[in-house]
Amino acid sequence: MTDGISTTATTTLITGAASGIGAATAALLARRGHRLVLVDLDGGHLKQVADDVRASGAEAATVVADVSEEDAAAAALDAGYQAFGVVDGLVTSAAVMISKPLIDTSLDEWNRLQSINVTGVFLICREFVRRLLDAGRPGSIVNLSSISGTVALPNQAAYCASKGAVAQLTRQIAVEHATRGIRANVVSPGTVETRQLATYLGAQPDPDAARQALYAAHPIGRVAEAAEVASVIAFLLGPDSSFVTGAALAVDGGYTSI
User: Which of 144, 166, 185, 240 counts the highest number of beta carbons within 10 A?
Assistant: First the structure.
């Protein structure tokens, strides 16, 4: 460790851990020796991820919870502290998406998306930071934003707004707590091969054409695998990124460079 901002997370809480980037991050961190607190509303898939993590030799606690509810943050951190004594890494992967024009987005749809994508991140980050400050411990936060938080995209008014808010909240956390050894960074993926993508493509009139359009939008010529995003998250949690805080790393195959 170096003086100043530095931390190596060893017990990491992951929201949205039941699938996609969250599950891939859990698998990678397990292989790297992290103890894990896995949080998701989907208890069935969460159990499978936890079983796989434990089969690899890692320790894991699970919490079935809706991250938009205030009590869920305390329950998740309680589970981690009870199981492992500390939680010093946080990855917020839980999110939902709707694809609708602004004028067709209902207030209920807007509120539900913001409650998960923004309020859920705020609540768990607030509880995580409070406990680290009380204990005088360092820690590392990696919040998942998106290319949609950097550029405007058609039919994504609610989602773009939510991911932009996550990026700005993360910068604020980083600046506010830098001298206390708490780092906060953002990973902003492009399109990722997940169940959410499969659902989106399945709803298109021509799924194959829609997939090819996504490939063409990324200069690298394809979409990401969840494991590729997980590797960047792991870097930001670990000692090799000890002087990185308040950063937003685009993992987008060049999408936002066009």
Answer: 144
Residue 193: alpha-carbon gap to chain centroid: 15
Beta strands in the chain (DSSP E): 11-15, 35-40, 60-64, 89-92, 139-144, 182-189, 192-193, 224-225, 248-251
| Catalytic residue list contains 215 | no
Q: Please give the Cα distance from 175 to 156 (Å, whole number).
A: 29
Do 53 and 38 touch, CB atoms closer than 8 A?
A: yes
Per-residue confidence in pLDDT tens, the chain, 258 aa: 343 443 456 999 999 999 999 999 999 999 999 999 999 999 999 999 999 999 999 999 999 999 999 999 999 999 999 999 999 999 999 999 998 999 999 999 999 999 999 999 999 999 999 999 999 999 999 999 999 999 999 989 999 999 999 999 999 999 999 999 999 999 999 999 998 899 889 988 999 999 999 999 999 999 999 999 999 999 999 999 999 999 999 999 999 999
Q: b/e per residue, 60-75, with b = 16+ CB within 10 A?
A: bbbbbbebbeeebbeb
